[in-house]
Fold this protein.
Amino acid sequence: MLIDEGLELLDELEAWALLQTADVGRVGLTMGALPVILPVNFTVLDGAIVFRTAPGSKVEAASRQAVVAFEVDDYDTAERTGWSVLVIGRSEVVHDLSLTFALRDAGLEPLADGQRGVVVRIRPEIVTGRRIARSGEASAG
Amino acid sequence: MLIDEGLELLDELEAWALLQTADVGRVGLTMGALPVILPVNFTVLDGAIVFRTAPGSKVEAASRQAVVAFEVDDYDTAERTGWSVLVIGRSEVVHDLSLTFALRDAGLEPLADGQRGVVVRIRPEIVTGRRIARSGEASAG
């Protein structure tokens, strides 16, 4: 087990498994030359991260063939436990009705009302994860 | 109340108030030409977001005078409720013992073990927030 400054580095399989326990993730991309982080509810389909956004939105424009970050995490500050997974990959706006149907079958519905008919897909190129190592685990393991 | 695609746009005071309810936020920055999102536990001091990181880390290097994004959120997917706050500002590595003491007094301790003696401060320039609007609230309010 690799420990880096109190953080256990997860292997890619563990990171994927944790990522798939989450409903909401965060996309990091550049809009108008500024960095932004936007929460999205997402699902994983065929090894890619998929979410919906509004047609004509800034998210749609920024997602066209951009390299983006995608993050999920879960922390319990009282217990001092938690983990995070970071994905880096190219995003793309998908015009594929079969994917739209697959999303509906997977039950991916945006949390908020409004039109979110555009599907964005992020194809992971780098997947990393970290988990807070419990004290003593480094020396015990 | 402004509603945009099912999301209520918060004013800056509301966004700040929500931001300060959170312990863990996420920093979006560029490392080695790639976008990354990293969770940090943070506090607010004198109107700035402050967190600790490891000396010599990639985070320290990337935080030097960079424009970064900082995000907090809280969602309940079962209830379809939640909010997010996005801050954009310049980050800087702070070498100021009085700030280090103030952080200790504020009880900001990193969740993970390890050396995190470097203090990073983000001075907010843009603060925005969104909350999922409950169905019907737009027309009722």
